[in-house]
Every structure is written in structure tokens, then in C-alpha cells.
Design a protein that fits this description.
The radius of gyration is 19 Å and the shape is globular. It contains 10 helices and 12 strands. Strand 2, helix 2 and strand 3 form a beta-alpha-beta unit. With about 280 residues, the protein is of the alpha+beta class. The strands form 3 sheets. It has a 5-stranded antiparallel β-sheet with strand order 4-5-8-6-7. Bound molecules: flavin-adenine dinucleotide (FAD) and iron/sulfur cluster.
Length: about 280
């Protein structure tokens, strides 16, 4: 195991400053993805900063306007079990419960979930085979290799990996927003703009930079939310990542779809929102 130093952050400002100043430092929340990546030598941080003691980031709040506030350190299991999450946005609870295992969901956080890295086997290969995401410029072993689980949309010659988060597919469909606190203050990023396509820089999964700390995910009130569903197709029925998944949320009137929100998972480097299909669903 690669050795690392561990310290604890007590205030967001401290965490942001330390992350900004030290390029070899990584935040650790539940550790369920990061520690695996370190074991696979896909990332080798010299220092880990434990953010679990930052105040106020585990809050799950059902907003009076019908939306949700989900703190970045809320555990997947707590969000999935929350009465108002299940009532207002069933697809969020379903996506969470179809991910990982009970033990992992008890440890893993919402911020860590949307930051998790691809499950491409070459990226996680300890033998350091060519992989542009792991070692920029080294090539892509999956392009002409084992790529059954890889991208069909938005890929590039540099990388054909997919994003593995189930929750991200649900959040992309319902116009959620990622709230980030960074060196210049707080900003909100539309969920569909949070993850990147690989292009020529597949080592960058999302738009965050040094010193950026996710503090929450905000879900706006949506009439489609209540009639929503997350469907996941995988090689086995538990403890497996998606071959393909779909989030659908609709408003119906006398059996006709009046408005729809659709996104696919397991098919691209980011959750794949289907805006054209949404319009067709309403027109038919
Ligand atoms: C065997 C196995 C099966 C799994 N199956 C699924 C599955 O089917 N579907 C699915 O969606 N997931 C699955 N997962 C992934 C799991 O959901 C993630 O490991 C987990 O959500 C990560 O959360 P964490 O809090 O443990 O993150 P960590 O491992 O602590 O961190 C992950 C990354 O996020 C960064 N980070 C964490 N919090 C913040 C923050 N607040 N701000 C900025 N950066 C932050 C860390 O620096 C790190 O880079 C599986 C994992 C395992 C090990
Ligand atoms: S698909 Fe991406 S992550 Fe997988 S080997 Fe190619 S560059 Fe690496």
C-alpha cells in the first residue's frame, strides 16, 4: 500500500486552503473509492485530508418549495431512506439503492459518489498498462481492447470510459445543481455541466479545480419528480455497475406525457441527458 499522511479538517475554509496549496493532497470522505484507487496505484496522494468532521455537510433538508438540499457528506444510505427524498424524487432513492452494497452505502457520501472515477479495468490495472486517464499521453488500451462496458456516446480516440455513478444519472435528469465552495467563494454548477467529456484530456473527469470542495447538491422542485423511476441493467442483480441505466421522470395528464426528463447512464464519460427524446415524448 502506498504510504500517506492523514489529517483532519475542521472548517471548510481550512480544507479549501490546504487543498489549494498542496497538489499532493486529496480529500477523503467515506474512502470507498479513493482507497481502492490508491491500492490500484491509479492515484498516489502523499496526504489525505479527512473532511468528515466539517460542520453542517450531512444535512438532508426537504425545502418548503418542494425541492431538496442534500449535504455533500450525507451518506448514501441516509439519503435513500429519507422519507421526503423517497416521496418527492423516487428515482434518487432507487438509484442509490441499486448502487454498491449496504455496507458501502453506509460509508459512502453523496459528494464522493459523484466524484468516483471510472471502473475501466485498464485505468485500475496495477500493472500500469497504457491509459490516458491514468497516465496522460500513454494511449488507450480499451479503444481496441476489452470495451464491452465502455462508451457509445461522446467518446474520443483518447478515452472510451464511462462514468460509473448511478446517482449522477438521476441528478442529471432532474436538473440538480452541485454547490461548490472554492478559493473565490461559492458557486453552483448545473449537474449536466459538472462532468466532462474526455476529448483530449480524459484525466479530467469534471470541472472542479484545486481548492474546490463540494458542499451540497440542490434538487429544484420539479413536477416530474414524483412520477420518476431509475432502471439499471447489469450483469448480475446485486453489487454490480450498470451496463446501461435510465432515469425517467414525467408529468402525465389523462394518460398523455405532458413533460419528461430523461437521462442514460453507463453509456458515456458523463450522464447522458436525452433532451431531444424528451421533446418527442411530450409531442407524441
Ligand atoms: C465494490 C464496489 C461496488 C460499487 N458499486 C457501485 C454502483 O453500482 N453504483 C455506484 O454509483 N457506485 C458504486 N460504487 C462506488 C461507490 O458508490 C463510491 O465508492 C462512493 O460513492 C464514494 O463515496 P466516498 O464518500 O466513499 O468517496 P471517497 O472514496 O472518500 O472519495 C472519492 C473521491 O471524491 C473526492 N471527494 C469526496 N468528497 C468530496 C467533496 N465533498 N468535495 C470534493 N471532493 C470530494 C475524494 O477526494 C475522492 O477523489 C461501488 C464501490 C465499490 C467499492
Ligand atoms: S478508456 Fe479511458 S480509462 Fe480506459 S484505458 Fe482508455 S483512456 Fe484509460
Amino acid at each position: 500500500m502506498h504510504p500517506f499522511a492523514l489529517s483532519i479538517a475542521h472548517e471548510p475554509a481550512q480544507a479549501i486552503a490546504e487543498h489549494l496549496q498542496d497538489p499532493h493532497l486529496a480529500f477523503i470522505a467515506g474512502g470507498t473509492d479513493l482507497l481502492g484507487l490508491i491500492k490500484d496505484r491509479a492515484t498516489l496522494p502523499a496526504r489525505l485530508l479527512d473532511i468528515n468532521h466539517l460542520p453542517g455537510l450531512t444535512r438532508i433538508e426537504a425545502r418548503a418549495d418542494g425541492g431538496l438540499h442534500i449535504g455533500a457528506l450525507a451518506h448514501m444510505s441516509d439519503v435513500a431512506a429519507h422519507h421526503e427524498v423517497r416521496r418527492r424524487f423516487p428515482l434518487i432513492a432507487e438509484a442509490l439503492l441499486l448502487a454498491a452494497s449496504g455496507q458501502l452505502r453506509n460509508m459512502a457520501t453523496i459528494g464522493g459518489n459523484i466524484m468516483q472515477r471510472t471502473r475501466c479495468a485498464y485505468f485500475r490495472d496495477e500493472d500500469d498498462v497504457p491509459c490516458n486517464k491514468r497516465r496522460p499521453g500513454s494511449g488507450c488500451s480499451a479503444l481496441h481492447g476489452l470495451n464491452r462496458n465502455h462508451a457509445v456516446f461522446g467518446w474520443s480516440e483518447a478515452c472510451v470510459a464511462t462514468h460509473p455513478s448511478d446517482l449522477a444519472v438521476a441528478l442529471a435528469a432532474i436538473d440538480a445543481v452541485v454547490v461548490v465552495r472554492g478559493p473565490t467563494g461559492e458557486r453552483s454548477i448545473n449537474f449536466t455541466d459538472f462532468h466532462r467529456l474526455p476529448g483530449t484530456a480524459p484525466e479530467r473527469d469534471n470541472v472542479l479545480g484545486r481548492g474546490d470542495l463540494i458542499v451540497a447538491v440542490e434538487v429544484p422542485a420539479r413536477p416530474e419528480g414524483r412520477a420518476s423511476h431509475y432502471l439499471k441493467v447489469r450483469d448480475r442483480q446485486s453489487y454490480e455497475f450498470a451496463l446501461v441505466s435510465a432515469s425517467a421522470a414525467v408529468v402525465t395528464d389523462h394518460g398523455r406525457i405532458r413533460s419528461a426528463r430523461l437521462a442514460l447512464g453507463g453509456v458515456a464519460h458523463k450522464p447522458w441527458r436525452l433532451t431531444a427524446a424528451e421533446l418527442v415524448a411530450c409531442a407524441s
